[in-house]
Input
Amino acid sequence: MAEENLKVLLSAEQIHCRILELGAQIDADATQDTVHLIGILKGSFMFLADLARAVKRPAKVDFIGISSYGMGKRSSGEVRLTKDLDLSIEGAEVILVEDIVDSGITLNYLINLLEQRKPGSLRIATLLDKPERRQRPIKVDYVGFTIPDKFVVGYGLDYAEKYRNLKDVCYIEQDYC
Ligand code: IMP
Ligand code: MG
Output
């Protein structure tokens, strides 16, 4: 089986330090006693786990499932809900937690969906942002790292479901022949 050529873009240490800062920022901005963290499956699971521990006030945790990529490196542009929330978000201080904002199509869809459920507030936290590829304008409140237009894996992110378990964020070096 062909293995991809992986290079470290962000080390586990860099990620850890930045998430502590994001957690402190979320605590400082919060207006309610409890924040409601919603992880977008599957890519955000590691970021959500670390961000939840970096936030010091009580947090509720829920997940929403979305599918838009299939097995490739580019979005199909079609978003499908694969798992709905378990908890109500009405009146809640919601932080939607994403692994990476790329075209913005996924978040645009989810923001519209969640706004209909009347949260008290809805903010976006993403570990990674690739602004060069944006197709929908998205206001992201908490960005871990802004990165160039490279396909990245690790720390929750996958390529064809592989590499989610890497502790660093790596990019796939393209082979030119
Ligand atoms: P968007 O709808 O194009 O913004 O895509 C967002 C989703 O695509 C993210 O939640 C990721 O799951 C996936 N994605 C976008 N870029 C990458 C990447 O570089 N590596 C792995 N997954 C990615
Ligand atoms: Mg995702």
